[in-house]
Design a protein that fits this description.
By secondary structure, the protein is α/β, with parallel strands linked by helices. Helices cover 49% and strands 14% of the residues. It contains 16 helices and 8 strands. It has an 8-stranded parallel sheet with strand order 1-2-3-4-5-6-7-8.
Length: 332
């Protein structure tokens, strides 16, 4: 099995239907369906807005430090079974905070989960809390300040997600300045549901170290050349892009054009439970598009926000693996 690095996975979007039922019942949270089949039917997304509705349904069931910790540990176990050695998990603290959950309870749960994940499953987990577009700007700055406060607990960056076309990155410049001043990386979503202007805004106003998605850069060849020249890594999620309708088919996905132009592209699942995918499937999709597992790993290593010690460990894993040999069980 190939070692894998995943830089773009929403931890709330890793909650499989069975776990969602368990957590919702534990917290007394009603769901639109009370069976696995019923919940699975909800994940037939009409469009990106429908996906966000289902995402909020899942996050609404998460209420306690125990829930947040469980989400991290459960996904680390799943990711490890697909060869993951390092992942950067996204979580959105402003959502539970808006429902009255304490900010520190949210951060503590996820940070404790990251530590437990490494101990139990051998996966190094770092965290990048996300600002949800459309929430009050005060919540964006609170997210940034708490992220900085938890920097020594595994938080390595600040993200921006949600309704990209409606809320441009420039609105969140202050929050990202707080994060950068506090020593965190900048990893906003851009170039998924909106075009090159969104990506440029993320680079210029948010000081993006990486771009999550970024595939709409191909609408502007000069931007693709700039990304390649600056060495900006894109976190590409092929199956997610299919499920949300960002691309019409895998054959039309921009990933091969980006790689051919010299842009480093890591490969991730985004929201695996919601999109019916996993790391093996997304790496297989990348291979189908002509991008090798080794290329994905190297781009992941290049884009990772971890410390030097962890980076050296990941580099050693990549250098010692026989990428040319056959993969057991047909793994990509």
């Amino acid at each position: 099995m190939f070692p894998k690095i995943e830089l773009h996975v929403h931890l709330e979007g890793t909650v499989r239907p069975g776990t969602l039922l368990q957590i919702a019942r534990r917290n007394g949270v009603p769901l639109p369906a009370d069976s696995l089949d019923g919940l699975a039917a909800l994940y037939e997304f009409r469009d990106f807005a429908h996906f966000l509705e289902v995402w909020l349904l899942t996050t609404g069931a998460l209420r306690s430090e125990r829930d947040f910790r469980q989400v991290v540990v459960d996904y680390a176990a799943e990711a490890a079974s697909h060869g993951a050695v390092y992942l950067e998990g996204i979580f959105t603290p402003g959502e539970p905070a808006s429902r009255g959950v304490g900010w520190d309870e949210v951060f503590t749960g996820y940070c404790d989960g990251a530590r437990q994940a490494a101990e139990q499953h051998g996966v190094q987990v770092r965290l990048t809390p996300d600002i949800p577009r459309g929430y009050p700007l005060e919540a964006a700055e609170l997210t940034a300040r708490h992220a900085v406060a938890y920097r020594d607990r595994g938080v390595v960056g600040l993200g921006l997600g949600g309704l990209e076309a409606e809320y441009p990155p420039e609105l969140y410049a202050r929050a990202f300045a707080i994060a950068r001043d506090g020593g965190l990386g900048s990893v906003p979503h851009a170039g998924e549901a909106a075009g090159p202007a969104s990506i440029r805004g993320a680079l210029d106003s948010l000081g993006a170290d990486r771009i999550r998605h970024g595939i709409r850069a191909t609408d502007d060849p000069s931007l693709v050349a700039e990304l390649a020249g600056r060495g900006v890594v894109l976190d590409v999620c092929p199956i997610s892009n299919l499920r949300t309708g960002v691309v019409a088919s895998l054959a039309e996905h921009p990933l091969p054009r980006l790689v051919a132009a010299g842009v480093a592209c890591s490969v991730s699942t985004d929201d695996p439970a919601m999109f019916g995918t996993d790391l093996t499937a997304d790496y297989a999709a990348a291979k189908q598009l002509g991008v090798s597992a080794r290329d994905c790993y190297q781009a992941g290593l290049r884009g990772a926000l971890c410390g030097q010690g962890t980076r050296q460990e990941l580099q050693q894993i990549g250098e010692s693996f026989d990428w040319a040999g056959p993969a057991p069980g047909g793994q990509p």
